[in-house]
Amino acid sequence: MTGVLQSGRPPLVLASTSKIRAKLLEAAGVSFTTEAPGLDEGTMREAISGEKALDPHDVAEVLARAKAEAISDTSAEAYVIGADQVLAFAGKIETKPDSMEAARRQLLDLNGKAHTLHTAVAVATGGETIWAMTETATLTMRKMSPEFIGHYLAAAGGAALTSVGAYQIESVGIQLFDKIEGDYFSILGLPLLPLLDTLRREGVIES
Which is nearest to 190 in space by CA: 114, 139, 135? Predict the structure, then answer.
């Protein structure tokens, strides 16, 4: 089915190496290629976050736009999708854990509390963003014992290090939560319905 709605239409590029974002687009029957944007994301986050800087909602959108435009600059005929997620908790922006110990500390901090997840998506063509939006979800973790957190991380394995917050709600990570308020696809990493609507409006996929 993939690509059946795109015959003769402009090429589409996902500026991300995220497996879950690719799976969401594939499941929707969208044909695309993937390309890493090649940005120093850590440095960019530092530059646009922190005291007296952009709020988490805007940080996510700036990063999504930057990723889309970075690929669009070299793929003039294509439409490029960029996306980013920012987890905000206790007045600061969290980053992806770089080790299992960092994941354990992050989960202990979030344990029994609510945090917000800002998921941005942008579409660029000709080197410029033509559309962008950000969805915000509130997720509340249940109160867990340190032992359970350790067992969860053992079950999740390296996947815990691939997302901010060290969880994936589409798999065993759902067991960490008491309450989730927000769009399911956005929490996974891509506000899929408004993105598809934009691609239809731009003629990238059939309307």
Answer: 135
Q: What is the pLDDT of residue 23?
A: 97
The answer to whether 131 touches 198, Cβ cutoff 8 Å, is: yes
Instruction: Give the span between the Cα atoms of 105 and 172, in whole angstroms.
Output: 18
pLDDT of residue 152: 97
Residue 68 DSSP label: H
Contacts of 186 (CB under 8 A, 6+ apart): 117, 119, 135, 137, 192
Q: Which residues are catalytic?
A: 84
Is the pLDDT at 34 greater than 60? The verdict is yes
Say yes or no to pLDDT of 51 above 60: no
What the chain holds in terms of domains, given with CATH numbers, is 12-201 (3.90.950.10)
Predicted local distance difference test score (pLDDT) of residue 7? 78
Task: Quickly count: other Cβ atoms within 10 Å of residue 154's Cβ.
Answer: 10
CA–centroid distance for 56 within its chain: 13
Q: Which residues of 123-152 are buried (b: 16+ CB within 10 A; e: fewer)?
A: bbbeeebebbbbbbbebebeebeeeebeeb
Instruction: Let me know the angle formed at the C-alpha of 162 by 85 and 39, rounded to the nearest 5 degrees.
Output: 60
Name every residue whose Cβ is closer than 8 Å to that of residue 23 and which is 6 or more positions away in sequence.
Answer: none
Q: What is the pLDDT of residue 198?
A: 98
What is the per-residue pLDDT for 75?
85
3-state secondary structure of 189: coil
